[in-house]
Write a structure and sequence with these properties.
13 helices; Quinone Oxidoreductase, Chain A, domain 1; single chain; Rossmann fold; eight-stranded mixed beta sheet; globular; 2 domains
């Protein structure tokens, strides 16, 4: 989408001003841009932003510096439909909608093998110019297959977790926990651990407890305030890294009935980097699964892991990477949100207008915020 020729629209929910967006700048960082109103084609729709979550992937794009300028930022979107293209069914102007940014084709080899995030079509963003904009065009595949109309009972603050929740749920499904919990789905001789009590680590906790409430979960984080929050959200133990983590995981594993193991059945690395992965593997029981769910920081070789291969294969551990979520996980998360079994709203610590995007980034980078939601700026003279 062209980034020149600023335009003004008079029919974005009554607001008359240049359309604002946050886009990546060449070589890293971001810039505030004034954009023309996106044109809506067949099967597409236009959303007026309500909230967009700031994600770790956004921070990684801003930091790594290799992404082309003008690329999209923001993909955890809830908006109001303001325009519908020809052929759209199931939506009308005024609907609240959660819209994903990636949609797999459903028919290629990757999709048929259950690897939808590896589908070539999945790479194309369905949101233009990205979620951090007043107006967002949603592509036809996303409208047809994945966008969700929201009931009045579901708040924007909860619905914005639909996309990240699907990403987390994919890792939970691939962790092997489903195969060992009790048939009733409430627990059994299984235990889990999570490295990192940021917003995604805590979202793992909330989803684990929504699915399998009796599975004991250890949260590992160096910050006392984040450990306290983890306990308040249902963690069975919240400890600093190192020996306290090893002792807590072993105690919960024994309490869950795994008397012959000193590790968790599934360990989720939401911290990222070589050191975190090594710690996660160490906390995983023989035969258990470590799920890698985080970008590794670039530089100082923290993105290159060294694993004791003999110890790894003799213990028959599994290492699984999960990058994103498919439509299956999205639909399951939607049901959990609508029924109230999953309530991620306690993770929201800040709401800021798009014009304060730099502040939002600093709050997240400095770990002074958990989840920051960006909202449109008020129109001049509003309020």
């Amino acid at each position: 989408m062209a980034l020149s020729a600023p335009a003004t629209t008079a029919n974005i929910l009554g607001i008359a001003r240049p359309l604002q967006a946050v886009v990546l700048a060449p070589g890293g960082g971001f810039r505030q841009a004034e954009l023309p109103r996106p044109a809506v084609g067949p099967g597409e729709m236009l959303l007026a932003l309500r909230v967009c979550g700031l994600c770790g992937t956004d921070l990684w794009k801003l930091a790594q510096g290799g992404t082309a300028g003008g690329s999209e930022l923001g993909h955890e979107v809830v908006g109001t439909v303001v325009e519908i293209g020809p052929g759209v069914r199931g939506f009308r102007v005024g609907d609240r909608v959660a819209a994903p940014h990636h949609v797999a084709c459903g028919d290629c080899d990757a999709c048929r093998r259950g690897s939808e995030p590896l589908c070539p079509a999945f790479r194309a963003s369905q949101l233009a110019p990205g979620g951090f904009a007043d107006l967002i065009r949603v592509g036809e595949p996303a409208v047809r297959l994945a966008a969700c109309g929201l009931p009045d009972s579901l708040s924007d603050e909860a619905a914005v977790f639909l996309e990240p929740g699907a990403c987390v749920l994919r890792g939970l499904y691939r962790s092997g926990l489903r195969e060992i919990v009790a048939p009733a789905g409430t627990g059994g001789a299984a235990s889990a651990a999570i490295l990192g009590a940021g917003s995604m680590g805590l979202l793992h906790l909330l989803l684990l407890k929504a699915l399998w409430p009796a599975v004991p979960v250890t949260l590992v984080d160096p910050l006392p305030e984040r450990r306290e929050r983890a306990l308040a959200l249902g963690a069975d133990a919240a400890v600093p890294p190192g020996e306290p983590a090893r002792e807590a995981v072993a105690a919960l594993a024994a309490g869950a009935g795994n008397t012959g193991s000193h590790g968790a059945d599934a360990v989720f690395d939401t911290a990222g980097g070589a050191a975190a992965l090594a710690a996660a593997l160490e906390l995983t029981r023989p035969g258990g699964t470590t799920v890698l769910f985080a970008h590794a920081p670039l530089g100082n070789r923290s993105d290159v892991a060294e694993i004791d291969l003999n110890a790894f294969f003799k213990a028959e551990r599994r290492l699984v990477g999960t990058y994103s979520g498919s439509l299956v996980e999205q639909r399951d998360v939607f049901r959990l949100l609508v029924t109230g079994r999953l309530d991620p709203t306690p993770l929201v610590t800040h709401r800021l207008p798009l014009s304060r995007f730099a502040e939002a980034v600093e709050l997240a980078r400095d770990r002074r915020a958990l989840k920051v939601l960006l909202t449109p700026d008020a129109a001049p003279g509003a309020g």
